[in-house]
C-alpha cells in the first residue's frame, strides 16, 4: 500500500511579479508618507516655507543698522532728560579743586536711571517694530536685534557724553569762576545699563513671537487606517 503524496505548497502570491519591487498597497501613503512626496512639499523638493537664508541674513543686516542708528536719538534724549550734577570749583593755594556741591545728592544715580529707562523703552519699541515688519522671526533676525541694541546703547552713550558739558571740569571751573555752580559732564557709572536695550528687545520679541507669531499646523493624532485613503 502506497502512502498518499504530500500536496505541493501553494505558490507565493508575489512570486509571479517579476518586473521590479513590489508596489505598495493601496492607500499606503495615508499612513506614513504625506501626499505630494516624502517631504511634504507637494512634489517639489526645492520649495521651502519662508525666505531663504540669504534673504534672512540681508534682513538681519538691515535690522542691525537701523536699530543701531536709533541710538543717536537715545543719546539726545539722555542728554536732555538726565538730571544735572552740580559742581563747584575752589582755589586752594595755587591749585583748583572741584567737588560736588551737594554731597548727599542723588543726581548721579538719576543719570544712570534715566539712561536705563530710556534704553528699556527703546528695546521694547525696536522689538515691536521688527516683529511687525517680520513676523516669522528667525535666528539671524533675533541675533541682529540683540547686536543692534548693544551697538545702539554704545552709540547713545558716546553721543550723550559728546553733547553734554565739557569733560575737563578744572578748565570749566576756571571758565565760570571760583564758587560758581556748573554741571558735571554726563557719565554712565553703571556700565550694565548698556545691556538694558538688547535684553529688553530680546524678551519683548520672544513674547510677541510666542503670543502672535505663526504656528505650524498640528499633526493629525488619528492616522487613517491602513489601506484606506483619507478624504
From TrEMBL:
Keyword line: Membrane, Transmembrane, Transmembrane helix
Protein name per Swiss-Prot or TrEMBL: AAA family ATPase
Coiled coil feature spans: none
Pro residues: compositionally biased ranges: 1-12
Region: Disordered, residue numbers: 1-52
Record-annotated membrane-spanning stretches: 60-79, 115-133, 140-159, 194-213
Amino acid at each position: 500500500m502506497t502512502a498518499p503524496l504530500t500536496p505541493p505548497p501553494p505558490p507565493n502570491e508575489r512570486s509571479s511579479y517579476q518586473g521590479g519591487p513590489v508596489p505598495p498597497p493601496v492607500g499606503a501613503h495615508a499612513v506614513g508618507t504625506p501626499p505630494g512626496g516624502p517631504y511634504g512639499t507637494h512634489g517639489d523638493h526645492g520649495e521651502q516655507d519662508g525666505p531663504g537664508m540669504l534673504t534672512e541674513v540681508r534682513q538681519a543686516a538691515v535690522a542691525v543698522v537701523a536699530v543701531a542708528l536709533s541710538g543717536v536719538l537715545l543719546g539726545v534724549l539722555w542728554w536732555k532728560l538726565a538730571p544735572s550734577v552740580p559742581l563747584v570749583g575752589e582755589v586752594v593755594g595755587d591749585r583748583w579743586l572741584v567737588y560736588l556741591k551737594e554731597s548727599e545728592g542723588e543726581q548721579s544715580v538719576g543719570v544712570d536711571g534715566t539712561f536705563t529707562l530710556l534704553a528699556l523703552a527703546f528695546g521694547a519699541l525696536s522689538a515691536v517694530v521688527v516683529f511687525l515688519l517680520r513676523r516669522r522671526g528667525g535666528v539671524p533676525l533675533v541675533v541682529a536685534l540683540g547686536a543692534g541694541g548693544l551697538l545702539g546703547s554704545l552709540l547713545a552713550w558716546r553721543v550723550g557724553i559728546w553733547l553734554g558739558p565739557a569733560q575737563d571740569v578744572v578748565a570749566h571751573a576756571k571758565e565760570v569762576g571760583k564758587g560758581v555752580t556748573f554741571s558735571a559732564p554726563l557719565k554712565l557709572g553703571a556700565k550694565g545699563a548698556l545691556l538694558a536695550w538688547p535684553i529688553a528687545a530680546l524678551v519683548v520679541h520672544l513674547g510677541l513671537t510666542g503670543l502672535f507669531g505663526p504656528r505650524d499646523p498640528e499633526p493629525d493624532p488619528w492616522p487613517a487606517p491602513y489601506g484606506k485613503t483619507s478624504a
